[in-house]
Design brief:
Elements (H helix, E strand, L loop, with lengths): L12 E2 L4 E9 L3 E6 L5 E5 L4 E5 L7 E6 L3 E7 L4 E7 L8 E6 L7 E7 L6 E8 L4 E6 L4 E6 L4 E7 L15 E7 L2 E6 L4 E7 L5 E10 L6 E3 L5 E4 L5 E5 L5 E6 L9 E6 L8 E6 L13 E8 L9
Parallel strand pairs: 1-22
Antiparallel strand pairs: 2-25, 3-4, 4-5, 5-6, 7-8, 8-9, 9-10, 11-12, 12-13, 13-14, 15-16, 16-17, 17-18, 19-20, 20-21, 21-22, 23-24, 24-25
Length: about 325
């Protein structure tokens, strides 16, 4: 099988940050996405085991399975205090996707329920809050090149945006198009992993589109990303086994990992800590290199902690 050539990937200079492993998972655990609770616990979705796992931010960092879902897991987003929404389904199987609500509380029992089916979806991936007061968030579909708006109050899903800039550019079936998404300072930022582009589009105060999609950066393979209070971006490169920092002027530097780094192999998502203790800590998930094994051998998946010296931005 022959594929259309993918664009090159450029990580800039090396400027490594202090890094530690918070938790290790068994080999062939595809840790997909991450969210951090206000109380500090770290939630990760595991794609291939369909588990939502919670990890304590305090040593010895114990982990527990919060819930096992009936299908593969993808993005997770918090809309309302300690209420999270997770995309589930089977890639490429139209009609298999749904959004589940997970209500967590330290004083009440766990509540898990299906919110809504998303029958048009083919590969829902990253999620981002759109309007917390109205209970709205967005889900990127990596194969459709589209974003769905999920209304948590009305329990509805509708297509919010579809654009050529969000679509795949190669024939490689394993690399997503639009992937990570975040709302920051009046713009929605989006990664197109296959095209190796980082994009943004204006969002008005009524949470409708304002203007055209523009390219912020090219030649950088980004899976998911987090944004700090200065507007700098911390991007996970997945198959390139690294975390890349992109400053507001477009300067990029590799702050963790590298092509042969087995510890940082398969970086999939990132999120900042939310307590005073870890506010400048960037948590990063990996899958141990399942998509591009270092030395041909898949390693343990990990939750990593990078000390980046800056606090995270509020998402919306």
């Amino acid at each position: 099988m022959s594929f259309t050539a993918a664009p090159a990937h450029d990580e800039g200079v090396e400027a490594l940050c202090p890094l530690t492993t918070v938790h290790s998972f068994p080999t062939n655990t595809f840790v997909e996405n991450i969210a951090v609770r206000r109380s500090g616990e770290i939630l990760v979705t595991v794609h291939n085991t369909s588990e939502l796992i919670e990890i304590s931010p305090e040593p010895p960092y114990p982990a527990k399975v919060v819930h096992h879902f009936p299908a593969n897991l993808f993005g997770i987003v918090e809309v309302g205090d300690d209420v999270f929404y997770i995309s589930t389904g089977t890639i490429g199987a139209t009609g298999s996707f749904a959004i589940y609500k997970v209500a967590l509380s330290h004083s009440s029992p766990l509540l898990v329920s299906k919110l809504v089916d998303v029958p048009e979806a083919v590969f829902p991936n990253g999620s981002a809050v759109l309007d917390p007061s109205r209970g709205l968030f967005l889900v990127a579909d990596s194969l459709l090149g589209a974003l769905f708006a999920i209304d948590t109050k009305a329990a509805t899903a509708s297509k919010w945006l579809q654009h050529d800039a969000l679509t795949k550019v190669t024939d490689d079936p394993y690399t997503p198009g639009v992937n990570g998404i975040k709302l920051h300072s009046g713009h929605l930022y989006l990664s197109n992993t296959d095209a190796k582009t980082f994009l943004r589009v204006g969002v008005s105060s009524d949470r409708t589109l304002a203007g055209e999609i523009e390219t912020v950066l090219e030649r950088c393979s980004i899976d998911d990303f987090a944004i700090d209070a200065q507007g700098d971006v911390y991007a996970t490169s997945h198959v390139f086994n690294s975390v890349v920092k992109i400053t507001s002027d477009g300067t990029r530097s590799r702050i963790a990992g590298g092509p042969q780094d087995a510890i940082v192999a398969g970086t999939t998502a990132a999120a900042f800590g939310r307590t005073e203790r870890d506010a400048t800590t960037l948590y990063v998930t990996t899958n141990g290199g399942m998509s591009n094994p270092v030395g041909g051998e898949v390693g343990q998946a990990r939750l990593l902690a990078l000390q980046v010296g800056l606090k995270g931005a509020e998402e919306a």
